Amino acid sequence: MSTAVGVALLTVTLAAAGGAGWDAALPRPVIEAGLNKAKCTVPASEARVLGSEFLSSRLRIVEVACWQSDANAGSILFAVPVGRPQDAQLVSVDRWEDGKVQGGFSISSPGFDAKTRTLSSTHKVSDAGDCGTIQEMKWTGWHFRLLHVWSKDRCDGELFEWDGRYRWQVFPQRGLEPDPEGSATPDETTYAAR
Hints:
disordered N terminus; mainly beta; 194 residues; disordered C terminus
């Protein structure tokens, strides 16, 4: 991925993709069930849709607020068949924790590139933005699979940003690079047919 694309991933969020009207379209019980399953800390009464983007002509991804801290905010994502919001499903997301790939539901500061169907996540350790984790995941047809992780543990005043992130790559390890096209997967009909 080029540096320009990486910078775009950080600045193009699902909210910028246009979520108008999705609060009303995503049923409240679906949102509340997702918040509970993901163990979100945002009270159900305050949870809101932050944005949405097309995954395909029949499927949207919808972002809902899940948690907030001093330096970060987290979201959960729903796969929503077009015209059938009552069939929305919480999407699982691979993430890097304690030196290994873990499954989960919430994601810190997501950005989405609809053209490549790649999701990015940034998690700052400090408000200064000089340490933290950047992750990239690819849509597989049913979840987002982890592709790359960059982690800068030392908060030393040197900015941790897309342009210099390759110095801190921790996943994949050499020789274990994932297929950039994602796993062999079913079509979006996996969600759209439900």
